[in-house]
């Protein structure tokens, strides 16, 4: 039951976004940072004060973000069609092209323990009439999951058999990668979360698929230290076992896009859900949570 994994009520912390996405607990500022994509801004919630402020505006439609090993933020930008780093407010490009062709609109990103950066590249920021970027062409002709090595600049297409790969997260030992595909029936595929076994250098093979048959797409997802998958699913968060047994559902008043664990002990779950940021207390933490040197601030 969901009561096994959450201990408090769902709280609404902020309302005022158009489409909230990409939440991340930032240890250096002890804040939750997220994207309000159509308003082209990044917001930050401070749990100590309860206040939300604009962290940055005119950000070229950022979306998902994660922490790098040094505590800097790695984030996706639809408008710049790239993955970039935000180190203390200084934003620099990491990767924006594949084989000489521009990426589509990177959506979500994780950093593995070997420092490789894994990200999804669906077309949502370049579709016609988009409010989430700038209309453009799919230059390399697909929607891949990529693995990027910052040290060498090598970019590898590790998954090419999904239609609109979106949220992604590793199992605790990083032997499995979960990837949401939000393309859905109008693109000829079920809404689904696909499971890939991962080997050295990013070689990946699909080993399973969870189909979401009620029309509620999984978008962003995270994995906790017990290997459980916490995923957005329409107006709810669902918790699945590693073998996709449904363990619990958290109803939410709005459609949830994404989520992150955070707070002082990592057990607060923050949800970006359409216009709002929500929080619920849990009994677990993110499997990918990192500790930083004591002098990091
Ligand atoms: Mg997403």
Defining key terms:
297 residues, Neuraminidase, disordered C terminus, six-stranded antiparallel sheet
Question: How would you describe the overall organization of this protein?
Answer:
With 297 residues, the chain is mainly β. The chain contains no helices and 24 strands. Strands 4-3-2-1-24-23 form a six-stranded antiparallel beta sheet, with no helix packed on it. A four-stranded antiparallel beta sheet has the order 5-6-7-8, with no helix packed on it. It starts with 10 loop residues before the first strand and ends in a 16-residue tail after the last strand. 46% of the residues are buried. The C terminus is likely disordered. The site of magnesium ion has 9 residues, from strand 15.
Q: In terms of topology, how is this protein built?
A:
Layout: E1 11-26, E2 31-36, E3 41-46, E4 51-57, E5 62-67, E6 73-77, E7 82-87, E8 90-95, E9 97-98, E10 101-102, E11 109-111, E12 117-120, E13 145-149, E14 154-159, E15 165-170, E16 176-181, E17 192-198, E18 204-211, E19 221-223, E20 229-232, E21 236-240, E22 246-251, E23 258-262, E24 268-281
Antiparallel strand pairs: 1-2, 1-24, 2-3, 3-4, 5-6, 6-7, 7-8, 9-10, 11-12, 12-13, 13-14, 15-16, 16-17, 17-18, 19-20, 20-21, 21-22, 23-24
